[in-house]
Amino acid sequence: MLEVSGLTTKYGEISALREASLHVGSGEVVGLIGPNGAGKTTLLNSIAGLLTPSGGRVTFDGEDITGMPPEKLLRSGLALVPEHRRIFVDLTVEENLRIGGVTVPSADRPALLDEMGERFPMLRDKWTTSAGYLSGGEAQQLAIARALMSRPRLLMMDEPSLGLAPLLVDVVFDLIEALRSQGRTLLVVEQNATRMLDLADRAYVLRSGEVVAEGTGAELRDNEDLFDTFVGN
Amino acid sequence: MTELLQNLIDGLGRGSIYALLALGVAVVFGVMHLLNFAHGELITVSGYATFWAMAAGWSWYLTVPLIVVVSVATSLAIERVAFSRVRGADDFTLLLTSFGVHFVVSAIFLLYVSASVKTFPRPGWVTNTYALGSLRVEVFDTVVIGVTVVTLLATTLLLQRTMFGLALRAAAADFDTARLMGVRSNSVIRGAFALSGLLAGIASVFWLMRAGSISPSAGINPMLKGVLAALVGGLGSLRGAVLGGLALGLAEVLLRSRLPDSVASLTEGVVFLLIALLFIFRPQGIVTVTHAERV
Amino acid sequence: MFPDLRRDVVFPIAGSVILFTLVVASGLVYQSQFGGVGERLITMALIDAIIVLGMQVFIGNTGILSFGHIGFGAIAGYAFAVSAISPVEKMKRIPDAPFGLTDVNVDPLLAVLIALAATLVVALVVGLGLARSGAESGAVSATVITLALLFVTHEVARNWPAVTGGDRAGLSFRIGGTLNGRVAIYVALFLAILVARLYAQSRGGRLAVAAREDDLAARAMGVNPLVQQMVALLISVAIVSVGASLRVYEKGSILPGDFFFNLTLVTLVMLIVGGRRSVSGALLGVAVITAGRELARRLGQDGFEMFGVGLDGAPLDWIFRENLKTVFLGVSMLGFMIWRPSGLLDDWELDEWLHAKFRRSRESPPASPQVVEPDDSASLVASGVDVAFGGFQALTGVGIEAARSEVVGIIGPNGAGKTTLLNVITGLVESDSGRISLGDTDLTTAPSFKIARSGLVRTFQNLRLFASLTVRENVEVSYLVAASHRRHRSPCDVDGLIAAAGLWAHRDRRARELDYGTSRRLELARAAATAPAFLLLDEPTSGMSDSESLQMIEQVRQMAGLVGAGVVVIDHDLNFIIGICDRIYCLDCGQVIAHGTPEEIQADPVVQAAYIGSTAEG
C-alpha cells in the first residue's frame, strides 16, 4: 500500500533521515520505534509532505507521492496525526472534527460526526467546549478522531502516547488496538517500544536517521540488541 | 451627557469604517502573518473606478456594487502578483513588499491619471441629519452603523458556520496542521484576500461617499487607520480588530471635541501618540492572542 | 571594545577612506558631464547618502524595519531651520513661535548640533517605547511604532504653524555663515561612513547583530538586545539628523511634505537595493537609485530623445511619462523584496574583503589556552520547580543540584520535562514556584541575559548559531559579553578556544555553511567562551552518529575543563550520558523518578520501565 524507498531528508546540512526504506501493506499495523532524535518524526513528516525529502521515493497505491503537499495527500487517503497532537485550541471539539472532514463531501459529514461521537463518547460530552480545555488524553483522542474524519485508508500517528500519564497511555493503546481490530491500516511512531511491539504486526527500528532493524513484533521483542539500542551498553 | 451621546454616535459611525478596514487587515495577517500596508490601495483603486463611473454618468446605485467588485478583484490581483511570491518570507520582507505594493499602485495612478485630486458628486443625503431626542444624528452615520452591523454579523456567520470560515480560522491558528487536515493553502489565502477585499470594498463605499474625491495618495490614510486599529485590537484577533476600529473612531471624535481649540488640529497626531503609548504599556493590544513557542 | 584592532579599526578606517573617495570621485565625474543640474543632483545624492547610512546603522544591524527615521529627520530639519533662521526672518514668518524661539540667533553649525541634540532626546523616548513593545511582541509592532512616529511628526508639522510655518508656507530662508556648501557635506558624509563602519565592528554593533541573527540565543549568551538596539538607534538617529539638517540647509526651505512618505520610500529603496546589512551596500544603493531615478525622470520627460535618438511618436510613450521615477522606485522595492530581499551586496563589506585579501600568511593554530581551575564554592541548585502550561503540568516539584567539579546528566523519555527544566533554569520559561540559585545568588526571577552573565550558559537542542556570522565572530560575541560582565574570571583566549574546539580551519566560514557536527562544536565553544560557571547542554548529540556521540564526550569534557565550568547535560543517548556523567537524574512525567550514579541508574527498574516502556503499569 505504502512503499518508501531510500528516503533522505536534510535540515540544511544535517541529514536527519538517511536512505530509509519501509513498506506498509493493506490492513497492517506497522510500528516505527527508536530513541528520541532517531528521525522517526522526520520520516513521517517527509511521507506526509510537511518536509520535502532531498532523495528517495514514496509511493502510495502505486502512485508516486514524493514531495506532494499534505492537502493533496490527504485527498488520496493518507492522514497524519501529528506529534504533540496540534489540535486547534481555539476551536470547539466539533469544529476540530469538522475541519478534519474538510475533504469529504459535506453530505457525508454529519454521519461521520455521529460516528466519532459514538466511538469517542468522552468527546461527545464536550462537543461545544473549546479544545484548549481538554486534558492530554482527551486531546489525543480528538486528534485521532479528527484524522479519522477524512476517512483515510492509511493513518499515520506520531507518538500518540507522548506526555501522557500511564493510565492514559493505556487508553491510547486500547484505541490503537480497536482501530486495528477494525482492519485499519496504521503506521505508528512510538517511543514506548515494548508496548508498540506487543501491538504491531511488524515494526522498524530507527537509529540516527537509519533503519537498523525490521521484523515482526515478536522477533524484535526478543532481540537483545534492541534493548541496547535504547538503554545503552 | 447629550454631548457625550452625540460623540458616541459620531465616533461609532467613524469607528465602523475603521473596524471594517481593520478586520480585513486582521484576516490577511491571520493566514499570512502579513501586515498589509497596501490595504488602503483597495480604496484608491475603487476610488478611481468611482470617478470614472460617475464621469460616465453612472448613479451611486450602480457605482456601489462596482466599488465592492473592484475592491475584491484588486485584492485578489495584488495577492496573485505580489504576495503569493513572498509567502513564508520573514517579517522584514513581507512588510516591505506590502509597502512596495502601496507605492506601485499609487504611482500607477500618478503616471496615468495625475497627481491632482479628482472629485465626484457625493450622494445628496450624506450631509442630511435628523433629530433623535436632543441629538442630531447624521443619516450617513446611521447607514454606516447599520451596514457595518449587518456586515459583521454576516462575517461572523461566514467564519462560524461555513467550512470556508472554519478553514480560515484553523489556518490562522496553525497553518501546517490545517494543511494536514486537507485545507488547501491557495484557496484559504485567496479566500482571505477576497474577504479582506470585500470588507474593504464596503468600507470604501462609505469612505468615498463622504470624501467625494480621490487622489493617488488617498490610500495612505485608510491604510493607516486599518493597520493601527488592527494592532490596537491585538494582531491576529478578529474580534480585537473590530474593537480596535471602534475604539480608534471614538478616540478621534472625543479628542476632537474635547481638546482645546489651539491643539484640536493636532487630533490625528495625538491619536497616534496615544496608540504609541498603548503599545508601550500594553504591547500585545487590547485582545491578547497567545502562541506557544518551542525553544 | 574592538576584538581585533587590525580588522575592526585599521581596515574599516582605510575602507571608509576608499568608499568616500569612490563616492566623491564618481559624483565629481558626473557633475563635470552635466554641469549645474548635475551638481545639484549630486549634492542631494550625497545628503541622501548620509541619511541612508544613518538608517543602515539601525535597520542593518538590528534587523528592525523602521519607517520612522524620516520622522526623526523632520524633527531635526525643523529644529535646524528654527535655530538657524535669523531673528529678522523669523519675525516675518513665525512671529508667534513659543519659548522665545524667534529670538534665537545661532551659527548654522551650532544649529546642526541643536538639531542633533533635540532629535536624540526624542529618539531616547521612542527607543524606550520600541524596547518595551519589541521585547513583548517582536518586530512587527516595533515597525508600526516607527510608522506612527512618521505620522505624528508629519501631523505636528502641518498643524503647528506657529513653529513650522504650516503646511503651505513652510519655512524658507537665506542662511549665511560658516556652513559652507560641499565641504560640510563631505565632512559629514565621511564621518557617517566611518561611524557606521566602526560601530558595526564595535562591541555594541556585534552584539546588536547577534541579537538580529537570533534574539533568543543572544539573550542566552548574556546579551541584552534592548540596550544594543537603543545604542544603534541613537547613533543612527544622530547621523540622520545631521543629514536632514544639511538637506534643509541646501534646499533653503522646509515643508511638512519634505520629510514624509516620498523621502521614506526613496531612502528605504536605496538601502534595500544596495543591501541593508552593509555600509558599502547602502552607498551602492544610493548611487544605483539616484542614477536610476534620474534616468527614469529624463525618460519620463523626453523619452529616448535624451539619448539623441529621435523616435517620433515613440511606441513607448505609454510608459515614458511624467512621474515615471515614482513607478521606478516602487517597482524597485517590490522587485528586490520578491527576488533579492538581501540587496545587491547582502552583507559584503569592502574593508572586510580587503582584510581577507591582505591577511598575513596563514597563521598556525595557537596552543591550547591555559586551563582554568574550577572553584568549588558555587553550586547550582534548583529546588521545588513547578511549571504548568495551560492545564498541562510540565514539572512538579523538581529539584536538582550540581557542583562545579562534576558532570550531571538529566535523562527521561520524550516529553518528560527535561528541556522545560533547562528553560526554567536559564530564565526562558517562568516557573510557577521553586527556586534557582547559583552559590549565594538567587536567580529565580532574573531575566535570561542576567542569568547568563551570572554564569549559567546553555546550548540549544535545535542549533541556534548566529547564522551569517563567521565561526570566529560567533565566539567573539560570547567573549565580548564575558569581558565586561565576568571580569572576575580570566577572559578566554578566543583563538585558543577555537583551536581547542577543532574549529581553527573553519574560523572564517559562516556558521550557516558548517556541517552538523562542526555546528555542534561551535555551539559548545561559543557557550564556553562566556567563561561560565556551568555549561547547560540540551541534547548535544542529537542527530549524531554513535561514533560522533562518543567523540562529543571528549569534546564536552575538554571545553568544560578549559574554562573551569561544571556541566549539566540533557540527552537521550544513554551511551553518551553514561560515558560522561558523574551523577544522573531521571525525569518522567515532570517528576524526578530516580537519581544516582550511572551504574545505579542503569540498573534501576523504574528507569527501564519509564524509558523503554513496559507492559507493567509505571
CATH class categorisation of chain A: Alpha Beta
Overall geometric form of chain B: globular
Distance between the termini of chain B: 53 Å
Derived from helix and strand composition plus strand pairing, the structural class of chain B reads mainly alpha
**DSSP helix count of chain A?**
10
CATH topology of chain B: ABC transporter involved in vitamin B12 uptake, BtuC
Number of strands of chain B: 4
Largest interface: B-C, 48 and 53 residues
Helix content of chain B: over 70%
Q: Which value, in Å, is the CA radius of gyration of chain B?
A: 19 Å
Spatial sequence of strands, sheet with the most strands of chain A: 6-7-8-3-9-10
Distance between the termini of chain A: 37 Å
**Residues in β-strands, percent of chain B:** under 5%
* Series of secondary-structure elements of chain B, N-terminal to C-terminal: HHHHEEEHHHHEHHHH
CATH homologous superfamily annotation of chain A:
P-loop containing nucleotide triphosphate hydrolases
Largest β-sheet summary of chain A: 6 strands, mixed
- By DSSP (H or I, 4+ residues per run), the number of helices of chain B equals 12
Tally the beta strands of chain A.
10
Instruction: Please state roughly what percent of the residues of chain A sit in beta strands, choosing from under 5%, 5-15%, 15-25%, 25-35%, 35-45% or over 45%.
Output: 25-35%
Descriptive overview:
The complex is a heterotrimer of chains A (233), B (295) and C (618). With 233 residues, chain A is an alpha/beta fold. Helix content of chain A is 38%, strand content 27%. Chain A has a single domain (2-86, 153-231), classed as 3-Layer(aba) Sandwich (Rossmann fold), CATH 3.40.50. Chain A contains ten helices and ten strands. In chain A, helix 3 (93-100) runs parallel beside helix 6 (136-148) and helix 6 runs parallel beside helix 7 (166-181). The longest helix of chain A has 16 residues, at 166-181. Chain B is mainly alpha-helical and 295 residues long. Chain B has a single domain, classed as ABC transporter involved in vitamin B12 uptake, BtuC, CATH 1.10.3470. Chain B contains twelve helices and four strands; from the N terminus they run ααααβββααααβαααα. Chain B has helices spanning 2-32, 41-55, 60-81, 91-112, 139-161, 163-173, 175-180, 185-211, 220-233, 238-258, 261-264, 267-281, and strands at residues 118-119, 129-132, 135-138, 213-214. In chain B, helix 1 crosses helix 9 (220-233) and helix 1 packs antiparallel against helix 10 (238-258). Chain C has 618 residues and is of the alpha/beta class. Chain C has two domains: 5-351, ABC transporter involved in vitamin B12 uptake, BtuC; 380-612, Rossmann fold, CATH 3.40.50.300. Chain C contains 23 helices and twelve strands. Chain C has a six-stranded mixed β-sheet with strand order 8-9-10-5-11-12, with helices on both faces. In chain C, strands 4-3-6-7 form a four-stranded antiparallel β-sheet, with helices on one face. In chain C, a hairpin with a 2-residue loop joins strand 6 (433-438) and strand 7 (441-442). In chain C, helix 1 crosses helix 11 (261-274), helix 2 (69-84) runs antiparallel to helix 4 and helix 2 runs parallel beside helix 5 (139-159). The longest helix of chain C has 58 residues, at 5-62. Chain C is elongated and about 90 Å long. The two termini of chain C are 56 Å apart. Classes of the chains: A alpha/beta (233), B mainly alpha (295), C alpha/beta (618). Chains B and C meet through helix 4, helix 9 and helix 12 of B and helix 4, helix 5, helix 11 and helix 13 of C.
